[in-house]
Write a structure and sequence with these properties.
Number of domains: 1
Strand content: under 5%
Radius of gyration: 14 Å
Number of helices: 3
Oligomer: single chain
Distance between the termini: 36 Å
Helix content: 55-70%
Largest sheet: none
Number of strands: 0
Shape: globular
């Protein structure tokens, strides 16, 4: 039986496809309205990644950002984003 937590952090195909779709749409909006994240997406695309792959990297960054904000009870500060 596979472990529920994935140590590699890659996006997997099992689970809610609707949630995965919403996550990718939120990641696209996150990159569109945040210059730091937009540069990160462009960096990934310049490394040779396809658009959807670069967007999945942004989605992972979004998840890590939300997790850190909730865990530490912080407000979002764009200047601290790297």
């Amino acid at each position: 039986m596979p472990l529920l937590s994935d140590k590699n952090g890659r996006m997997v195909k099992h689970g809610s496809s609707a949630l995965r779709c919403v996550l990718m749409r939120c990641a696209d909006s996150f990159a569109l309205h945040n210059p730091v994240v937009y540069e990160y997406k462009l960096k990934k695309m310049n490394e040779g990644k396809f658009f959807r792959v670069a967007l999945s990297h942004v989605a992972k960054k979004l998840i890590r950002t939300i997790y850190t904000l909730e865990k530490n009870d912080l407000d979002f500060d764009q200047s601290k984003l790297r």
